[in-house]
Amino acid sequence: MTDKVVFRKPQCLTDKAFLYCPGCSHGIAHRLVAEAIDELGIRGRTVCVSSIGCSVRCWRNFDLDVVQGAHGRGLAVATGLKRALPDKVVFTYQGDGDLAAIGMAETVHAAARGEAITVIFVNNAVFGATGGQMAPTTLVGQKTTTYPKGRDPGHVGMPIKVSEMLAQLPATAYIAREALSSPKHVLAAKKAVRRAFEVQLAGGGFAMVELLAACPINLKLPPVDALKWVEENMVRYYPLGELKSPPAAPPARAAGGTGVGATGGEGAGGRTCAGGGCQ
Ligand SMILES: Cc1ncc(C[n+]2csc(CCOP(=O)(O)OP(=O)(O)O)c2C)c(N)n1
Ligand code: SF4
Ligand SMILES: [Mg+2]
Questions:
Q1: CB of 52 shorter than 6 A to ligand 1
Q2: Cα–Cα distance, 234 to 238 (Å, whole number)
Q3: Position in ligand 1 atom list of the atom nearest CA 26
């Protein structure tokens, strides 16, 4: 009798332990990305552009080629990679401080150009790695080290809904938001992550999945309560689901082109600081 394997570590993950705090959502996000790449059979030609937040050392955990994009520059690095090597599957893995604060310009312009890149955007509503400063995504009233009395919209404005903003750009192909707060939501997140890779493989343009995530250490909550906080507070402000999805066959684009209206081809082309100070 042979054993039937029902669950195992994805091939795309190394044997190295995650260095994240207990209850951190980055480990779940890594697993979903790894599973999607395994299932699509693209491990040999996928390149990750890593973040500079707590997940800066995701190269330890992804058994893939990984290039580190300086803080906020992930989508500029990924643009160069995809345009130079259009046969590669290129994705960025970025936090909210990275993608939506210092990297907002790179994000908006890569999306506006319709770069054929997959973006995994892990939004935990805070600069996790550097000790819990306010991010553009920090919720109203949420206490951070830089706004200890809570975010005051009269002073710093409302949190930015990045997915909604990018979905209205004509050249974006796929934009979805899911949460990593419960098994039901994690399953939905897995589908969205896979779809974001499929869109790139089918020759579509910019594809992003925003994953609402928990940073228990900076929320100063136990892991289970941090997940509840995501579900009760983040999901209320950042609604889940697909904001934009291409029809079954997404518009094709020319290798090396900028995406909009092009045809043919597959597409154009440390250290981790868990809860503490980082570079
Ligand atoms: C150019 C540059 N500026 C600032 C920093 C310091 N820095 C490192 S991580 C980080 C915040 C990361 O927050 P986020 O992207 O939300 O990731 P998280 O740790 O929350 O997953 C900052 C400001 C840096 N590494 N490089
Ligand atoms: S500080 Fe937050 S984001 Fe960073 S590893 Fe810890 S829980 Fe995760
Ligand atoms: Mg963050």
A1: yes
A2: 6
A3: 21
Contacts of 121 (CB under 8 A, 6+ apart): 94, 95, 96, 99, 100, 162, 163, 208, 209, 210, 211
The tens digit of pLDDT for each residue in 11-28 reads 999 999 999 999 999 999
| Tens digits of residue pLDDT in 252-261 | 554 444 333 3
Specify whether the CB–CB gap between 142 and 132 falls below 8 A.
no
What are the boundaries of each domain within the chain? 26-128+160-244
pLDDT at site 240? 98
> What pLDDT is attached to residue 269?
32
Which residues have C-beta under 5 Å from ligand 3, the single-atom ion? 95-97, 124, 128
Q: How many Å lie between the centroid of ligand 1 and the Cα of residue 138?
A: 14
Give φ, ψ of 205 to 5 degrees.
-95, -145
Which atom of ligand 1 sits closest to the CA of residue 51?
15
Alpha-carbon gap, residue 188 to 125, rounded angstroms: 20
Centre of ligand 1 from the C-alpha of residue 7, in Å? 34
Q: Is the pTM of this model over 0.85?
A: yes
Strand ordering across the sheet containing 46-50: 65-68, 46-50, 89-95, 118-123, 206-212, 172-179, 241-244
- The CA-based angle 54-58-61, given to 5 degrees, is 135
**CATH of region 26-128+160-244:** 3.40.50.970
Measured CA to CA, the distance from residue 67 to residue 70 in angstroms comes to 10
Looking from the CA of residue 124, the nearest atom of ligand 1 is: 20
Nearest CA to ligand 1 atom 12: 53
